[in-house]
Write a structure and sequence with these properties.
414 residues; 8% strand; single chain; two-stranded antiparallel ribbon; globular; 19 helices; alpha+beta
Length: 414
């Protein structure tokens, strides 16, 4: 499977060299062979403007800087290396401030006897790349027990944070019973905290709760402070879920998985398999592994490789991902909104029960938008599940009208 490199089908020949250099540079660690490949590519004619713009779009420009600096800094144009260095230094300062903020928040929750576990953000960057400045993150994700959610929210509000939606205590209780997370924003710094009481949201059959992963938590040191975080096996399954939910919209979401696997030879693949089976997300896991093998030549255990290669749906799903990653905006990369609805989300489920479950959630699972648009009393919160289909129909009709108007305008111009 590693020799297929299916993604090249969506890379125009004139940019093939730049994309190859981007993927080599997006590796968290470089072996001798990779360094030699980078040197060879850099010594050719490179469209540096396109490369940097695309690396920035895919959130791997900081990794690219590290790789170029390690492999062949003398062969990179000075202005290119300087630009990347400035972005690295800027992100380093910003990441340090956010990391220090995370440490103070965890200390605050600890002082209030609230178990809390950070994931993603600086913790993931430190685990995967050994340097939190090599990954961009604009918010913090913190997992608490469901029974501590309201108390935690109150502590955050006293600490200067505001809820993304205005809810009273009774409404918050109803919200917490049906949802898995809520967003809080600092009125002073603008820092956003995504407070979770379930990591996987409503995306899987079996929820990832703090009390279900607490026996496998491990320590990491960030900003001089030891913190607990999910083990690599739990994090691997979560990252595949999270990437699939976002339709794998950038290369960094895959680079972090590749780095997570390659940075730990002792990965417990049996635990990974059992967790995916329990959550009924085997194909989602297998797709994530297929993608990192194809893009980054990641080596899996033989048993896991056999499982991945047995699923005939994976190559077609991978091509869907690559179409989004490389073809759509390859000529002029621009920011892309996260897809909200996609047939991809149904195809990536290998059980009809899970397809139906996801469709039901999509249609009736009220989001924060319903709670914000329709602020009903807590005892009437069931109304949100009725109003959601109506709001989706209105959104679809609006999208349809905008599309027709744009087509008419285009026709007049032609």
């Amino acid at each position: 499977m590693n020799c297929y490199h299916l993604f090249y089908q969506f890379v125009p020949p004139k940019y093939r060299k730049e994309i190859k250099l981007l993927l080599l540079g997006a590796r968290g660690s470089l072996d001798t062979a990779t360094i030699e490949q980078i040197k060879s590519l850099v010594n050719e004619t490179v469209d540096w403007e396109y490369l940097i713009e695309t690396a920035d779009l895919h959130k791997v420009h900081l990794l690219l800087y590290q790789s170029l600096k390690k492999a062949c800094p003398e062969s990179v144009p000075d202005d290119v290396l300087k630009k990347l260095e400035n972005e690295y230094n800027t992100n380093s300062m910003r990441s340090l401030l956010i990391t220090v903020k995370l440490v103070s928040i965890l200390k605050l929750l600890e002082d209030n006897n609230i178990p809390a576990v950070p994931f993603k953000g600086p913790v993931l960057a430190q685990m995967v790349y050994g340097d939190f400045a090599l990954r961009q993150f604009g918010d913090l994700d913190i997992l608490v027990n469901k029974q501590d959610a309201l108390k935690t929210i109150k502590i955050f509000e006293d600490y200067g944070f505001q809820l993304e939606i205005n809810l009273n205590k009774k409404q918050l209780l109803a919200y917490a019973a049906k949802k898995s997370s809520i967003e809080l924003i600092s009125s002073k710094s603008g820092l956003t905290v995504d407070l979770h009481w379930e990591m996987s949201g409503s995306y899987t059959f079996y929820p990832l709760l703090l009390n279900s992963i607490e026996n496998n938590l491990v320590h990491a040191t960030i900003a001089g402070k030891k913190v607990l975080h999910p083990c690599r096996e739990d994090l691997l399954v979560y990252l595949c879920l999270n990437g699939t939910r976002d339709c794998w919209q950038d290369v960094e979401s895959l680079s972090s998985i590749a780095g997570l696997i390659q940075s730990n030879d002792g990965l417990d693949w049996m635990r990974v398999r059992h967790l995916a089976e329990r959550m009924r997300c085997e194909r989602i896991l297998h797709l994530g592994l297929f993608l990192v093998c194809d893009l980054f030549d990641v080596k899996l255990s033989q048993d896991m490789m056999n499982l991945v290669e047995k699923d005939p749906a994976l190559p077609e799903l991978a091509l869907t991902v690559y179409n989004n990653l490389f073809k759509e905006n390859i000529e002029s990369p621009v920011f892309r909104e996260k897809p909200k609805f996609s047939g991809f989300h149904f195809k990536v489920r290998d059980r009809w029960s899970e397809k139906i479950r996801y469709g039901k959630h999509l249609l009736l699972g009220a989001t924060a938008q319903e709670w914000a648009h329709f602020p009903v009393p807590a005892k009437l919160s069931f109304v949100h599940s009725i109003l959601r289909p109506a709001r989706l129909c209105m959104a679809f009709f609006s999208w349809l009208m905008i599309g027709r108007r744009n087509n008419r305008i285009k026709g007049l111009k032609d």
